[in-house]
Design goal:
The protein is of the alpha/beta class. It contains seven helices and seven strands.
């Protein structure tokens, strides 16, 4: 990796307030290299420039790190190139991850990347649709998915009773949140992604106990 990319990573981590070890920084840069390599054949992302990948994929994923609870078993729905799940698995060793995607090319990349990055002990890759997968997770997270209510609908069986849904959004999803049932407690947090002049939000939804 070039010195400029290393410097860009360190500057971004500092702006995010994240302390990452040398080994973690090496893994984050190795992830970008793998994404760039596999992208040539598998078209995982429209972004080709590694510096742009660092901003729009790595920093974008890392922007939620300080807002998520530590520990637990999490699932990244439609993980694609591993955003945010694979990146967050590098950044925080306290969580176990399931990376789910219905695209076989993407799950092949996720499996190989997890292997090469030494994450197999904490990362499981699943090739399936969310509706067909079974499991109970403390956190159900996704970036750039369908509307919030629809997402909760087709992943409802995956969220543990005390778990939460976490959705990474662009513009503030005012309409989506307005139509959610009242028994969902919603928290929104504005995110700041280094070197990205675009709006970003993190939406947390948790179902509250309803009286019978």
């Amino acid at each position: 990796m070039s010195a400029s990319l290393i410097k860009q990573l360190q500057t971004g981590l500092s702006a995010l307030g994240l302390a990452q070890s040398e080994a973690q920084q090496t893994r984050l840069l190795a992830y970008v290299a793998l994404l760039q390599k596999w992208n040539a054949a598998y078209n995982l992302t429209a972004i080709r420039d590694p510096k742009e990948m660092l901003v729009k994929h790595v920093f974008d994923a890392l922007s939620v790190q300080q807002h998520l609870p530590a520990g637990g078993h999490w699932i990244d729905i439609g993980s694609g190139g591993g955003i945010p799940g694979l990146v967050l698995a590098i950044a925080d060793e306290s969580r176990a991850w399931t990376l789910l995607d219905s695209n076989g090319k993407k799950t092949r990349f996720l499996t190989q990347a997890s292997l090469e990055l030494g994450l197999m002990a904490r990362v499981t890759v699943v090739h399936a649709r969310a509706e067909d997968h079974q499991g109970q997770y403390d956190g159900v997270i996704a970036r750039a998915v369908t509307e919030t209510a629809d997402f909760i609908g087709f992943t409802h069986h995956l969220c543990a009773p005390e778990g939460s849904w976490w959705l990474m959004k662009g513009q503030y999803p005012q309409h989506e949140l307005a139509v959610l049932p009242n028994h969902f407690q919603v928290t929104t947090t504005e995110l700041h992604v280094p070197a990205l002049a675009a709006e970003r939000w993190l939406v947390r939804c948790q179902a509250q106990n309803q009286e019978a």
